[in-house]
């Protein structure tokens, strides 16, 4: 019996492969090949277009991206040995560029720039990076993911709980919450540029109206302190509907009988959520967390439309930099190296999430 | 009857072979969505197709924002058209990358052309423009006179100090949102095109033009740092709107009287004249010590490297650079015709014309952006440095960053053949 069915399956192997061919071919062409190419190109000096031959350059693309260093600056002293202070009484330090540019005593720091600095007693400890823009892009993206993942998942769950009720007209609310997902992110970004506009944008006008004119207009996207968070708020708003629907599907798989049993036991609303709903959403939660994390790491369109990485690198993201290097600056090798690093980061975080949310027996 | 039949057949055959003998030439143009330009260009193509029986030019248009990417993609795929148009500063890269071949025009044919309309790379002519563009300070005579500000002339432009003082005076009036509009909303090639001449007037540049192999000491030297501090001051002191200016304010701010002065190109001059009439002034760039400078070179025509019919493509370009077409383009777009003889045929650039001043600006002060394949990388890096400085980054650090990135790019490309 079993031998017969196996041979029947084997007879159909060819047909099976033939049917899979279009999908396999397309996936190979558009996913597998570019993925492998990125790895290969990241070890070369490949340009987008160039008459020069491609050469293998080892790890130099990665060294260029990831090179970091530190520098301890002592305050400037006058002839008597007293610390020179500026008008605000802060000690004055020599300029970092005196050490990192054409300084034979600090060759290991050559070409680096200041990333951040902190006081260290009376000295100043400066963190340097060979590629400040890329390191900032990584830090921004990590900050973005760290905030978006819990906030977006939490808000989506809240909305899902709200619309998971048998009320008249509840579908209207479901549609309203889901609407931003259907609109292209590029269109959403363009619209929100008007909302965030500095002088007479919608948000500033609204806040001014609500505070009876006491609110000082903020240039949301033009201020390094607010730009990334403005984009983050918009991204959450845009994406929350999609994950709401996934939560909703999870909620609707929880058997009604469990809630009835809880009611008989006299459970409060919170207890029902804590001991019935939340355990029932376990697998949904894992899925949502991983999906949001991956989506947040690929932050690009909002940046490209709204700020182009500015002001002063406050909204640089990893994917935006990969495109900038690879296409705008025609340095495919460097863009590939960034893609490889992004892949490794996302892989690590996904594995970590899998491990943290594993079934503990 | 039979004879007539054969006669008709013979005639048809003759006609169709006549059409067949014309070889098709494909042409790409960046101006999709601009009906005025299209009309003139299609007119030239029709005239050319009718004027001879060897070639037929077929036009394909692209939106400007997608044009360069389309050419790069077509070059990678080996699908370039016969005739290309190319933005002047990009031409060396396209020539170096092998998208374009030298243009076989005689030197006599281009002798009278403005220097900004001629695209040369390594001693060879690759592209030729039907027009050039120029930038000037848009101002109103009445505003300057009310505030006791001298009206500068081509021979005696404002000095840097005079310019700064004028901005302070205009700001103090309180009549304007900002005394100067630089067009920071337009985060594109506008930045290097419009603002690198300021840097050059201070004595810096995007690259050392002696060697073309390093920007160190030029883009971040003392003169460049002086420029950087001045540039930052414009935004810190609220003399000009910064990078978050929106495009609508850029387009209407000066016409609405919200900006006292505007740094803008001649392609926007006609609406300004319409609005302010005789009060309207187009002033030369201030001289920050190294002479007044403005950017030169606009879009130009060339022949692609894998064209099978460079002779046909060249014939079309030679046909298109007649004075009457230069004048037609200028009348339609407001751009500067590339020759003085064509200028005399136009409404706005003929002696006494409303935009005549731009022709002299272009001829006297036009400075090409660095003529090197590496320019396409310099351009976004310089734009980023200017935006960062305007947004409060340390000028020295921002210019150092651009310098290092430019030098690294040049090194990775084996000095681009220099």
Automatic annotation (TrEMBL), chain A:
Residues 138-353 form the ABC transmembrane type-1 domain. It is found in: Cell membrane. The keyword Cell membrane applies. Its main location: membrane. GO terms for biological process: transmembrane transport. Pfam families: BPD_transp_1. Keywords: Cell membrane, Membrane, Transmembrane, Transmembrane helix, Transport. PROSITE patterns: ABC_TM1 (PS50928). Gene3D superfamilies: MetI-like (1.10.3720.10). The keyword ATP-binding does not apply. GO terms for cellular component: plasma membrane. The chain crosses the membrane at residues 14-41, 142-163, 175-195, 227-248, 284-303, 332-352. Belongs to the binding-protein-dependent transport system permease family. This is Sugar ABC transporter permease.
TrEMBL record, chain B:
It holds the Pfam family SBP_bac_8. One of its GO terms (molecular function) is maltose binding. GO terms for cellular component: ATP-binding cassette (ABC) transporter complex, substrate-binding subunit-containing. GO terms for biological process: maltodextrin transmembrane transport; maltose transport. The keyword Iron-sulfur does not apply. SUPFAM superfamilies: Periplasmic binding protein-like II. The keyword Nucleus does not apply. Residues 1-21 form the signal peptide. It comes from the Bacteria. Keywords: Periplasm, Signal, Transport. Belongs to the bacterial solute-binding protein 1 family. This is Sugar-binding protein.
């Amino acid at each position: 019996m079993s031998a017969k069915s196996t041979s029947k399956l084997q007879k159909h192997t060819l047909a099976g492969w033939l049917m899979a061919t279009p999908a396999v071919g397309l996936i190979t062409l558009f996913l597998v090949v570019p993925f492998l190419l990125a790895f290969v190109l990241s070890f070369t000096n490949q340009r987008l277009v160039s008459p020069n031959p491609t050469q293998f350059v080892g790890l130099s693309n990665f060294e260029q991206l990831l090179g970091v260093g530190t520098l301890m600056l002592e305050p400037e002293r006058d002839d008597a040995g007293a610390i020179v202070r500026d008008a605000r009484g802060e000690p004055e330090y020599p300029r970092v560029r005196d050490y990192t540019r054409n300084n034979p005593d600090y060759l290991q720091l050559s070409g680096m720039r200041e990333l951040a600095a902190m006081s260290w007693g009376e000295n100043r400890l400066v963190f340097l990076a060979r590629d400040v823009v890329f390191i900032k892009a990584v830090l921004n993206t990590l900050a973005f993911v760290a905030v978006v993942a819990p906030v977006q998942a939490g808000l989506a769950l809240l909305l899902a709980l709200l619309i998971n009720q048998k009320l008249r007209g509840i579908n209207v609310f479901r549609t309203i919450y889901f609407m931003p997902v259907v609109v292209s992110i590029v269109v959403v970004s363009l619209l929100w540029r008007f909302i965030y506009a500095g002088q007479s944008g919608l948000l500033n006008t609204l806040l001014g109206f609500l505070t009876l004119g006491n609110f000082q207009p903020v240039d949301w996207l033009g201020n390094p302190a607010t730009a990334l968070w403005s984009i983050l708020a918009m991204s959450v708003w845009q994406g929350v509907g999609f994950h709401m629907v996934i939560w909703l599907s999870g909620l609707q798989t929880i058997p009604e009988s469990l809630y009835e049993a809880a009611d008989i036991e006299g459970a409060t609303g919170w207890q029902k959520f804590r001991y019935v709903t939340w355990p029932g959403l376990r697998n949904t939660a894992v899925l949502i967390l991983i999906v949001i994390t991956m989506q947040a790491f690929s932050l690009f369109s909002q940046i490209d439309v709204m700020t182009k990485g500015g002001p002063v690198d406050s909204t640089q993201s990893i994917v935006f930099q990969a495109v900038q290097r690879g296409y705008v600056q025609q340095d495919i090798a460097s863009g590939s190296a960034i893609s490889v690093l992004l892949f490794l980061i996302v892989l690590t975080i996904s594995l970590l999430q899998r491990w943290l949310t594993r079934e503990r027996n | 009857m039979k004879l007539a039949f054969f006669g008709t057949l013979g005639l048809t055959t003759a006609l169709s072979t006549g059409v067949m003998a014309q070889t098709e030439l494909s042409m790409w143009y960046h101006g999709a969505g601009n009906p005025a330009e299209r009309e003139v260009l299609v007119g030239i193509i029709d005239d050319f197709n009718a004027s001879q029986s060897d070639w037929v030019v077929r036009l394909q248009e692209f939106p400007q924002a997608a044009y360069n990417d389309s050419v790069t993609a077509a070059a990678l795929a080996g699908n370039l058209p016969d005739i290309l148009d190319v933005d002047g500063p990009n031409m060396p890269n396209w020539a170096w990358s092998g998208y374009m071949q030298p243009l076989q025009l005689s030197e006599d044919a281009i002798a009278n052309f403005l220097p900004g309309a001629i695209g040369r790379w390594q001693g060879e002519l690759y592209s030729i423009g039907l027009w050039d563009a120029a930038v000037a300070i848009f101002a109103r005579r009445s505003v300057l006179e009310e505030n006791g500000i001298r009206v500068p002339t081509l021979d005696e432009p404002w000095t840097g100090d005079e310019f700064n003082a004028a901005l302070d005076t205009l700001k103090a009036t309180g009549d304007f949102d900002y005394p100067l509009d630089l067009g920071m909303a337009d985060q594109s090639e506008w930045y290097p095109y419009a603002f690198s001449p300021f840097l050059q007037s201070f004595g810096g540049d995007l690259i050392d033009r002696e060697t073309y192999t390093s920007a160190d000491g030029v883009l971040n030297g003392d003169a460049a740092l002086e420029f950087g501090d001045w540039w930052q001051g414009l935004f810190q002191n609220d003399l000009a709107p910064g990078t978050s200016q929106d495009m609508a304010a850029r387009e209407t701010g000066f016409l609405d009287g919200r900006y006292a002065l505007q740094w803008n190109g001649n392609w926007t001059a006609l609406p300004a004249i319409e609005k302010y009439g005789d009060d309207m002034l187009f002033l030369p760039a201030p001289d920050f010590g190294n002479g007044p400078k403005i950017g030169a070179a606009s879009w130009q025509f060339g022949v692609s490297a894998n064209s099978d019919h460079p002779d046909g493509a060249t014939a079309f370009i030679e046909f298109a650079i007649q004075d009457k077409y230069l004048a037609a383009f200028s009348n339609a777009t407001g751009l500067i015709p590339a020759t003085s003889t064509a200028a005399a045929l136009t409404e706005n650039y003929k002696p006494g014309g409303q935009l005549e001043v731009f022709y002299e600006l272009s001829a006297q002060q036009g400075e090409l952006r660095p003529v090197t394949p590496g320019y396409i990388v310099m351009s976004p890096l310089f734009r980023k440095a200017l935006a960062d400085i305007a947004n409060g980054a340390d000028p020295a650090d921002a210019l150092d960053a651009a310098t290092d990135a430019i030098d690294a790019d040049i090194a990775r490309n084996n000095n681009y053949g220099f």
